[in-house]
Amino acid sequence: MPVIECDTESARRRLEDAGVVVSEGNTDHEQWRAERDGATAVAYDDKVVVQGSDPARLTTLLRGGGGRGHVYFDGASRGNPGPAAIGWAVVTSDGVVAEGSERIGETTNNRAEYAALIRALEGARDYGLDEVDVRGDSQLIVKQVRGEWNVNEPTLREKRVRARELLDGFDRWTLEHVPREINERADELANEAFDGA
């Protein structure tokens, strides 16, 4: 159970800026409470105590963010176009600090890959990371976002612009194509979304 010594009002603002809902404390000793993805933060005088099954979901934000993370993304379409899903994970020295998966309706594989990349970058941004090393197993998306290949399809061009806006919000970033086995967690999450797990 991490205990973070900090200015609790600054910590509250960081959480709210990241979209975490902060509510009043349950007792006279608690200043406020916040919950996210299985973690609960409770603020006292000069500290915040984080509890729950996955405290890393809040500790990065409470410590003021910063630091470097690895970001993995994967999107898939069964049928191309067909039912599509995405998976993504953000990993720091604290372990997996954010991950997600969801079905995104009917679309193409390339659109699903872009959707996964954008959601992964939003997750890294929400956790306040300064530097990201982004990895995905779609060579097309990686080369288009890096500007090495042209993007002819208008919808993909819009998604490329959004991905670059998010990347440019970090102090430093890299984007690399990796084999599927390196991108295993994001791939698993996308498949879990398909299977309803």
How would you describe what is shown here?
The chain is an alpha+beta fold and 197 residues long. The protein has 2 domains: 3-62, TATA-Binding Protein, CATH 3.30.310.10; 68-195, 2-Layer Sandwich (Nucleotidyltransferase, domain 5), CATH 3.30.420. Helix content is 35%, strand content 35%. It has 6 helices and 10 strands, in the order βαββββαβββαβααβα. It has helices spanning 8-17, 56-62, 109-126, 139-145, 154-168, 184-195, and strands at 3-5, 22-24, 32-36, 39-43, 47-52, 68-77, 82-92, 95-107, 131-136, 172-177. The strands form 2 sheets. Strands 1-5-4-3-2 form a 5-stranded antiparallel sheet, covered by helices on one side. It has a 5-stranded mixed sheet with strand order 8-7-6-9-10. Helix 3 (109-126) runs parallel beside helix 5 (154-168). It is elongated and about 60 Å long. The mean pLDDT is 91. Residues 65-195 form the RNase H type-1 domain. InterPro entries: RNaseH-like_sf (IPR012337), RNaseH_domain (IPR002156), RNaseH_sf (IPR036397), RnhA-like_halobact (IPR049863). GO terms for molecular function: nucleic acid binding; RNA-DNA hybrid ribonuclease activity.
